[in-house]
Specification:
single chain, alpha/beta, Rossmann fold, seven-stranded parallel sheet, 8 helices, 7 strands, binds NADP nicotinamide-adenine-dinucleotide phosphate
Length: 254
């Protein structure tokens, strides 16, 4: 098999595939030969991302949906079933959050983050099971915040610790089907989601501050995470199961 066909003939779904880490991963999956489905809530961003993927030569489809809504997930998997019949790779990546100090945390802040990141990840994987072939690879986007403390970021961090722990348990639930489940934990990566953690006027300050904390001395690029996701998606990682793969420039390793 050539270097550029690690996912030849595979069908992959990337939730939250319209921007940032998800889009870069969809591009990398496609470059490795996969048919790629992406999702997101915003129609315009979805169309732009699908056009970008197709410009790059990908066989790509966009399906609009919110991972926190179970009806949307049913519609997404029905459409994939009709078009492709099955999935080989699931990258449950949709998610995000914002910053809020403990004393200011509201029910809406908690529900918004846990609905997308925890409930969304759980039901994305659960509802994908009927389409995932035995031997498939599932990758969950956690974060370095799963193991590190950050001021004003407790709800998001707790949600990502939950996501990381899903991998440890689901690999046991899915053992009879030989489905591997791994978590990927990016450090600060230059995406719309990272900048969007704070209001516009504070964004460059936040990005510079985060870059200064990374031992490698800069923010990560989405494509650098994508390469690691492709590794976990492909047979190159055939004996790797349940890990948390940090792609973080060393920030959570010191
Ligand atoms: N960038 C970082 O530094 C970093 C570090 C660690 C972990 N992460 C994680 O990496 C993942 C990707 O984030 P990113 O940085 O690439 O940010 P991003 O560019 O904002 O991408 C987030 C993607 O998820 C989608 N999304 C968010 N909530 C969704 C929902 N409820 N249902 C469906 N789609 C949803 C977004 O589209 P719509 O808004 O249109 O739905 C978008 O496609 C997230 O899970 C994030 O928590 C990021």
């Amino acid at each position: 098999m050539s270097n550029a066909s690690k996912l030849a003939g595979k069908v992959a779904l990337v939730t939250g595939g319209t921007t940032g880490i998800g889009l870069a991963s969809a591009q990398d999956f496609a470059a490795q030969g996969a048919v790629v489905y992406i999702t997101g809530r915003r129609q315009a961003e979805l169309e732009t991302a699908v056009a970008k993927l197709r410009e790059g030569g990908a066989t790509a489809y966009g399906i609009r949906g919110d991972v926190a809504k179970l009806d949307d997930l049913d519609r997404i998997f029905n459409e994939i079933e009709q078009r492709s019949g099955h999935l080989d790779v699931l990258f449950a990546n949709a998610g995000g959050g914002d910053m809020m100090a403990l004393q200011d945390v509201t029910e809406a802040h908690f529900d918004g983050i846990f609905d997308s990141n925890v409930k969304g990840t759980l039901f994305t994987v659960q509802k994908a099971l009927r389409l995932l072939k035995d031997g498939s690879s599932v990758i969950l986007t956690a974060s370095t915040t799963s193991v590190q403390g950050t001021e004003n970021f407790s709800v998001y961090s707790a949600s990502k610790a939950a996501v990381r722990n899903f991998a440890r348990n689901w690999l046991l639930d899915l053992k009879p089907r030989n489905i591997r489940v791994n978590a990927i934990s990016p450090g600060p990566v230059h995406t719309p989601g990272l900048a969007g953690l704070v209001p516009q006027e504070q964004q460059s300050g936040l990005l510079n501050h985060l870059a200064s904390l990374v031992p490698i001395g800069r923010l990560g690029q989405p494509s650098e995470v994508a390469k690691a996701v492709t590794f976990l998606a492909s047979d190159d990682s055939s004996f790797i199961n349940g890990i948390e793969l940090f792609v973080d420039g060393g920030i959570a390793q010191i």
